[in-house]
Design a protein that fits this description.
D-amino Acid Aminotransferase, Chain A, domain 1, Rossmann fold, 11 helices, alpha+beta, 356 residues, 3 domains, Dna Ligase, domain 1, four-stranded parallel β-sheet, homodimer
Chain lengths: 356, 356
């Protein structure tokens, strides 16, 4: 460890949801304190943080006070307003860095960046007008998905175009936001790699997991992924290539489609990732600790997998199943302490363990 | 689960050290919030708690406000003043209950209770005066250990009597406190069992670990303990007997000597226990979560061991080894965020993992 933050230093975390919550716990495990910045009241991360700032991302006074109070800054989501990042970065280091945010905040820039790295991505074209959409459909074909370039998550800001006449409705769904048309990828499975890179350039990846979505929301991740060993190793190499190209520091989630032509990169997330929650019960060092290690300047930890795991998200009324899950063996429950179980809201997850 | 506390309920924890810290994290993992009561400033548990009360145990106003703010009360140490317990218990349930505290707060009552349960303990006698000590030595023989009946921990309040003439110095070491003379037990190993009992009487024990002390402080715990399987099972049965007799709710640490005559109970601790820290990386559900489950009325979780573990305490300047430990494989580090690394102070621990 060349120059890690001293024990007791404060890690500022932008965003107070479940990812920030689990990052806070990991920070504490390594002897650090955390300070959450979150506009919403009573954030889940606040229950386990040393301090919380409740303010909006355009509150310069609050941002300055937050930066003053912390030693380093990280985040649990990528859609942080640029003006806030500019101010914070002038006062404290931010990991992962701005380049990773610039690339991942805009699907058009992301796809361009990844394909320039020589990686396979879905065919894509930028779309702002009906005319551009029409040309994009001619070029890419149907079916396809029209997505807002920025601020999409969990299937929000997306519209399918099964046939050319769907174009008008799809464009209306974008509500005037700059969009990207992506061609359909014919895939047999979606896998993801959670990879980490330290400040001195060490890269470590967790075993790829296989993801199943429902209604645009991740439902389960299963490790090991049921794909040939060669593809699992390809997936790790792809993740390492992206991390190195970005001179990345921290954990990244890389979603990949398994196709007859090999792996196609779906998207990258410059943060800990829902599909990496299995690491909490499958590895000695999980994705949250790996991220904190990178952010504070520690070497990465031992992310070898010691168990087969199926992670299942508990969404909305799934919370009613906690009583049953609490009694069943080999189940590790992780609840987020959210006040209200709304439909589609991630309330917790369960890691089901099998010894490997 | 008949009537567990609802998600988001607040668990009051008396004591803000590393045990309270790890209990807070476990509470959060199950969706609960924690509120620490601790006289000392900047307690380690405060970094991961939803709220902290800094006040002394004779501050009735603070105790009342604390009890008002929480749904249930537990503790990380057994030496809580009786007057504070009386007040708190009149307002909120306390788990583990008063009987466990009454028994474990006084070595004389503890030894008497355990032997009346039919369990083997070291020969013992109450001592307050030089005359009583002399009679006790006649009865029990030397060598022996004179200990204060109350408030001893990590070897504090103890004096060895190797030969009869040591008696005077040993008694002076008690500084007038009521004491107990315990005969030396000729043991080949010390093991401990971390056992839990739920509100509906379900009992579950973790695999016994083997403890090595240095200077009265726990240095390492190794699982599995290197003792015959029969003794491991005896140890679990002894722990279950004690928990059931006390109608206990929560986790208890039971320290046992391995002797030619079988297992001799050294002492019990009505709380999570340093020798149970290995469970954090050796089991799906660790001792801290098991304790919280019992306290909030959940069923106990799956405490089966999936790995061989050596837990080593990081004491005082051991903290300087963190850099080396951070880089070594199969090491799970747990640091407590304490401000100053004093000699003899527990600063963290490391769990070294071997797949079993």
């Amino acid at each position: 460890m060349t120059n890690p933050l001293p024990s007791g230093a404060v890690i500022g975390i932008l965003g107070g949801g479940q990812l920030g919550r689990m990052l806070s716990v990991a920070a504490a495990r390594l002897g650090y304190r955390s300070h959450i910045f979150e506009p919403g009241a009573n954030p889940p991360a606040g229950h386990v943080a040393d301090a919380v700032t409740t303010a909006s991302y355009d509150d310069e006074t609050a941002l300055r006070a937050f930066a003053d109070a912390v030693d380093v800054i990280t985040y649990e989501f990528e859609n942080i307003p640029t003006s806030a990042l500019d101010l914070l970065e002038s006062m404290r280091p931010i990991y992962p860095g701005r380049e990773a945010l610039r690339v991942s905040q805009d699907r058009m820039i992301e796809k361009t960046y990844l394909s320039e790295l020589g990686l396979q991505v879905a065919p894509f074209a930028a779309v702002e007008t009906a005319d551009e959409l029409s040309k994009a459909i001619d070029q890419i074909g149907v079916p396809g998905i029209l997505k807002t370039r920025r601020f999409g998550y969990d299937g929000k800001g997306q519209a399918r175009i099964m046939q050319a006449p769907d174009a008008e409705t799809a464009l209306a769904d974008m509500q005037g936001a700059p969009a990207i048309l992506e061609g359909f990828v014919n895939f047999s499975a979606e896998i993801s790699v959670i990879a980490a890179r330290s400040q001195d350039g060490q890269v470590s990846a967790f075993d790829p997991g296989e993801n199943v979505h429902e209604g645009g929301i991740l439902r389960t991740t299963t490790v090991p992924a049921n794909v040939p060993a060669r593809l699992r190793s390809d997936a790790v190499l792809i993740a390492a290539k992206i991390l190195n190209a970005l001179d990345y520091v921290g954990v990244m989630g890389v979603e990949l489609f398994v196709t007859a032509q090999g792996l196609v990169v779906n998207e990258i997330a410059p943060r800990v990732h829902n599909s990496g929650h299995w690491t909490q019960n499958g590895c000695v060092v999980d994705q949250f600790e790996q991220h904190i290690r990178a952010v504070v300047g520690w070497p990465l930890g031992d992310g070898a997998r010691h168990a087969d795991v199926v992670m299942e998200n508990l969404i909305g009324s799934d919370l009613e199943r906690v009583s049953e899950l609490a009694s069943s063996g080999d189940c590790a429950l992780h609840l987020y302490g959210k006040a209200e179980a709304k439909a589609g809201r991630k309330m917790g997850h369960v890691n089901r363990i099998k010894k490997s």
